[in-house]
């Protein structure tokens, strides 16, 4: 087993974008306890404390190697209510072999290289003065959001304003990793839905973040309206599973 000490070393060991996203926990400036990462033959495992509201153990690689590596590193994470995260087929097989409980299946999406570009004239970067309105909008329109303005992973917000200047549709740039950006906190005021505002905001944010690296997000598997928006923007869907020991 080899310990990987930086996001760059993780990127050299795997092309899996979700594992590389979790590797932000190895970098200076990560807002929580520093994470850890390991490699065993073709398997890579990253432990990322409090990443996107959970202590995550993200893994990828050949099934036998992943099982062997998890058996070695998980006992050291005593007292941690970790959530394991991986591509759905691998996660199901690994969970069965380790006796873990599969909690949910949802989607990991990444932006394709040939994603279309569209104008977004009404979308802008919001300001610090908009934070109370952003928080209020999320609590009304998306109270289960994994991102709020006071989250340490929140970087900045894009949005569309009403005629009085109040944000009515928003999305957040959050939890950035070297070479990757992550979208979360998407919400539109109930009184302004079905106008395509979320599409406009996500189009703007996707275009801006694509200049900085790969663009990724997570979405529920049964959220067809959101998935339709993301697919239309050029995101590709891969099923992933969360499990616990």
TrEMBL record:
Give the matching Gene3D superfamilies.
3.40.630.30
InterPro entries assigned to the protein according to its UniProt record, in alphabetical order:
Acyl_CoA_acyltransferase, GNAT_dom
| Keywords recorded for this protein, A-Z | Transferase
> To which species is this protein native?
Saccharopolyspora aridisoli
* Domain named N-acetyltransferase: residues: 121-245
Top-rank lineage group of the source organism? Bacteria
Q: What is the protein's name according to its record?
A: GNAT family N-acetyltransferase
The protein's matches in PROSITE patterns, at most eight in alphabetical order, are given as: GNAT
- Organism classification: Bacteria, Bacillati, Actinomycetota, Actinomycetes, Pseudonocardiales
Among the GO molecular function terms of this UniProt record, one is: acyltransferase activity, transferring groups other than amino-acyl groups
